Amino acid sequence: MAAPAQAPASTTSSSEFIRGIGPLAAISLVVGSMIGSGIFIVSADIGRQVGEWGPGALLLVWVVTGAMTVTGALAYAELAAMMPRAGGQYVFLREGLSPLAGFLYGWTLFAVIQTGTIAAVAVAFARFLSVLMPGLSPDVFLPLGRIHLPGAADAIQLGLSPQRVVAIASILLLTIINIRGVTLGAAIQTVFSVAKVGAVAVLVICGLTLFRQPEIAAANFSNLWGTGDWSLAVVPILGAAMVGSLFASDAWNNVTFAAAEVQNPSRNLPRALAIGTGTVSLLYILANVAYVNILPFHGDPNGVDALSRGIQYASQDRVGTAAIEVVLGAGAATVMAVAILLSTFGCNNGLILSGPRVYYAMARDHLFFERVGTLHPIYRTPVLGLIAQAIWASILCVSGTYGQLLDYVIFAALVFYFLTTLALFRLRRLRPDLPRPVKAFGYPVLPALYMLAVGAIMVILLVQRPLYTGCGLAIVAIGIPVYFLWRRSAASVPA
Question: What's the rounded Cα separation, in Å, for the pair 346 and 363?
Fold first, then answer.
C-alpha cells in the first residue's frame, strides 16, 4: 500500500510530528484501543467470581467499571487539553508530580503494559485466525526451554509455534504500517474501529430483540441479585471481579500519547476521551445485558452445549461465541472469529501507534535511548521507538509470558491512574496560572471519587491477590535504580 501524502519538508520541520489525527480518528483511537477480545471473554470469569450474587452482580461490575472509566477520562481531559504533548500520561506525571513518577510510568509501559498487551492481543488474533485456518497450531515446534513464574500453575514453554509466528508477523506488519506515517495508521484505526463497534452493536441488537430467549431472560431477571449476602462483605468480591472488566476497558488513555499529532488537540482530545469512553462503556454494559437475555447465568462446567454451560462456564470462557451459537447454531464460531479478528487487529494498531510516543518523550528527556527521540525525516514517526517496541513485544510472544506479566501489572497500572489524577489536583494548586481550555467535569468531587474507587480496588487486590500485586510493584520498583542510572549516564555525557 502506498504511503499517504505527507506535508512537504519545507513546511514542517523534520523534528516535528505531523498533525494527522483528526477528530474522528482521535475518537477511533480511544474506541479501537479499548475494544479487543475482552468483552467477548471476561464475563465468564466475572460470572464465576460473583456466582451466588447472580446476574445483577455481573451487570453491576460492568456499570461501575464504565462509570470509573468515563470519570477517569473526564479528569484526564483537563490534563490533555492543558498539555497536548507527545507522551501524554508520562508528561502529566512528570509535570504534576516528578520526573521519577513519569519515568516509572514509561518504564512500566515499555516493560509490560503496552508491549505485554500488544503480545497478548496478537496471540489472541492468531488463536482466532486458527478457527478459519485449522493448520495454525498452538503446539511449539521450536522449543527454547521452560520457565516457571511465581504464582503460575504450570511452567511456560518457550519457543515458536505456528500461532506465535503469526502473532509476531501481525506485530511487524502493523509496525511497518505505522512507520509509514500517522495519517495511514489513523485511517486504519478509524476503519477497524467502525467495524468492531458495528460487530458489538449487532450482538447487542440481536440479544435484545430478534434472538432474545424469553424463558432464559425471565429466569435470569427473576433471580437478578442471587442468594448471596449483599452486605459490605460483598465489596471485596466485586472489587476483585472488576479486574477483568477494567482491563477490557483499559487503554483509553493511549490517545494522550499521540497528542502532538492530534489536530486542534485542546478541543479534540477531551472530546475523544469523553465520547470514546462513553460509547465503549455503554456498549459493554449492553453486551452483558444481551448475554443474560440469551444465556443462563448459572451453568454446568460439564454441560454439553452453550445453554447448559451458561455464562459462567462458556467453553474456553468465550461468552460471545456461546451467545452467537444460540443465535446462529453451527456457524457461530466462524462469525465470532471474524469479529474478534477485526477487533484484535484494530486494537493492536492503536496500541502500536501510540506507545512509541511515550518512549520518544522519555528519550527527549534523556531517560531512554537518545535515538528513540528522533523522527523519520519523511514520515515524521518515531521509527526507533516503534522498532524497539515491536522487538520486545515479539520476544514476549516467543516467551509466552505475556499473560502472567499482565496479571502482575494490574495493580501497578491502577497505581498510575491514581497518581495521574493526583497530579491533576496538585497542578490546580501549584500552577493555577496554566491555561485550562477544558476543566475536569465535576471537579473536585468526581475526580476525588475516582481516586477513592481506584484506591479501594488497590486495597482489595493487596488483600485478595498479594502475589500479583507484589510482582506488579516489583516491576515498578526495578525502575527506580534504572532511573538514577540513566540520569547519571545522561549527566556524564558532554553537552
Answer: 27
